[in-house]
Every structure is written in C-alpha cells, then in structure tokens.
Inverse folding.
C-alpha cells in the first residue's frame, strides 16, 4: 500500500496548481462543499448539544486529505478557531497554507503520520477516502485520534450512480437525461483527456473507485464507531461535473439540484454518501442508516 500512497502523492502534487480551477470554479464543487458544510454544522450541533455556540467554535477540528484548503478556509471564515489540516501531498499543503496562513498543517499519509492521540473533537474529510486502497486503517486511525464523544465525518461519491454500474437502468430520469449527458459531456472532453494523460497508465476513472455502503460498512466493522450514512444528489453528481461557471451552466445546475432535492433523494439513490462515525463516550458498536 505504501507505493500506492507514494503514487497518490506524486499525482496530487502534479495537479495541485490547477485543482481549484477544476473543482472550485464550477458549481458542482461549490455546491457539494456547501452541502457538506450544512451536514457538518448539523452534526456538530447534534453531537455537541451541551456546548454554547462560542464553545463549538473552539472545537479541535482536523481536515484530512484537505487538498487546497477550501473547506478549512470556509470554516475559518465561519469563526472556527482550532483548525488543523493534513494531506499526503506537500504541494496541496503549500497551497492550503497560503490560503490559511494561521492554520497548522501536517504532511503525510493520514493512517501513519504522527499526530496526538485522542485530541480531536472532529475529524473530517471530503472526497479522499476513495483514493485509499484499504479503508480500515484510516477508520482505525480516526478512532484513535478522536476524543471520546468526537466524530469522523466524510463526504464521498457513491458507487450507486444512475449509470455507473450497468449503464442505462432503473429510472425514467435516466432515460430523460441520458441524451443530455452526451451533449454536455462533449464540452468537457478535452479536460478529461488531459486528466487521463496526467495520471498515466492508471487512467483518470480507474484511479477513482466510488465507494459502496457495503465496503464502508465492512471497513468500520468492529472498530467501535457508531456509524450513520446518508445518500445525496444523483443528478448533480452525475451531470454537474460537466458544468462550468457560466450563467447557463449555473441555471442548469440549479435545475439538477432542484430535481435531486425534490425527487431523487426520495427515491433513495443519491450520488453522494455522507457519513458520520461517532466515537462513543462509553465503548459500543453499531451501524445505522444507509
Ligand atoms: C480529490 S482531493 C480532495 C481534496 C479536498 N478534501 C477537497 O474536497 O477539495 C484528495 C486529496 O486527498 C489527499 N490524500 C490522498 N490519500 C491520502 C492519504 N492517505 N493521506 C492524506 N491525504 C491523502 C490527496 O493528496 C488530495 O489532496
């Protein structure tokens, strides 16, 4: 696994400079992060219900696989004062440190780099677990680093996308939006090709394996967390990756988001998984939701 982590480090170093332009100058990245922040705020309020608002802002929060520090800089603007970042790519951390000069960063793989045990209230991560070949050491590490009552919170693309497993299937929405996909997908062809070249033989898509509830469930098994999962946003996840920050694309994104919120989530086939794994104050284990 170490050579894969090293490969990951090299890949992330190579595209760090363009990362914000690819993900955060279009509505899909912005929208996903906003959804995750809403989820995170909700979990912080629920889990730290006895704390005042001022105390919550002082929680010790570690962003793992923090990339260019988008989430950290937003939490900082929201008034959180005890923030830490970690990433295996030194180039990503360099960019994140420029964005957030007062935040401390650690460079290295999350499951092995030295960090204080039992000292974090919240450990979070967006869109990086699917870069890790074996998840269990990551979850075990999160458990060890959390204080009792703290939680690990993540957002990940879900493998139950409308098209991903067996092509056109199941839903009327798929049939309606299939042709649209090919139309908007064409716009992004050059960028996808460039990413494939950048990532070499592995290819862009094979590097990303989207996670299943089952894989996550198995990786959490027996560690001691209480795990909850929610699924989100099939259409946004699938189509909005092709959209950029133009007025027309933002409108299309708004439509997809509306459809997701009002129809797709009710059908239980979201394209994103949100998970929250709480370390109990008194040890016990179990899985809810999903
Ligand atoms: C797709 S980026 C996501 C970045 C950021 N969380 C975001 O949502 O914009 C994945 C990040 O995870 C980092 N990463 C991958 N494997 C890692 C590991 N084992 N330990 C720490 N960071 C890792 C990569 O270097 C990269 O910055």
């Amino acid at each position: 696994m170490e050579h894969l982590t090293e490969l990951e480090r090299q890949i992330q170093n190579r595209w760090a400079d363009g990362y914000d332009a690819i993900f955060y100058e279009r509505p899909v990245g912005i929208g996903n992060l906003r959804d995750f922040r809403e989820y995170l705020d909700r979990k912080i309020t629920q889990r730290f219900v006895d704390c005042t608002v001022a105390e919550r802002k002082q929680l010790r929060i570690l962003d793992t696989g923090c990339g260019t520090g988008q989430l950290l800089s937003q939490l900082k603007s929201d008034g959180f004062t005890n923030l830490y970042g970690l990433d295996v790519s030194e180039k990503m951390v360099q960019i994140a440190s420029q964005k957030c000069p007062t935040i401390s960063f650690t460079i290295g793989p999350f499951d092995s780099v030295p960090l204080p045990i039992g000292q974090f209230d919240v450990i979070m991560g967006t869109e990086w677990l699917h870069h890790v070949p074996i998840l269990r050491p990551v979850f075990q590490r999160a458990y060890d680093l959390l204080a009792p009552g703290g939680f690990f919170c993540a957002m990940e693309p879900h493998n139950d996308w409308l098209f991903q497993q067996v092509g056109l299937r199941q839903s009327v929405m798929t049939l309606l939006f299939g042709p649209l996909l090919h139309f908007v997908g064409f716009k992004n062809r050059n960028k996808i090709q460039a990413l494939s070249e950048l990532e070499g033989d592995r290819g862009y898509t094979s590097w990303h394996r989207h996670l299943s509830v089952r894989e996550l469930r198995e990786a959490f098994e027996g560690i001691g967390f209480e795990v909850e999962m929610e699924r989100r946003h099939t259409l946004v996840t699938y189509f909005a990756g092709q959209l950029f920050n133009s007025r027309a694309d933002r409108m299309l994104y708004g439509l997809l988001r509306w459809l997701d919120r009002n129809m797709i989530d009710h059908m239980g086939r979201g394209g994103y998984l949100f998970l929250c794994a709480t370390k109990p104050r008194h040890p016990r284990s179990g899985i809810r939701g999903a």
Observations:
- Residues 5, 8, 12, 23, 64-67, 70, 86-89, 92, 109-110, 126-128, 131-132 surround S-adenosylmethionine (CB under 6 Å).
- Confidence is low (pLDDT under 50) at residues 161-175, 198-208, 266-270.
- The chain has one domain: 2-281.
- Strands lie at 61-64, 83-87, 104-107, 120-126, 146-157, 226-232, 272-278, 286-289.
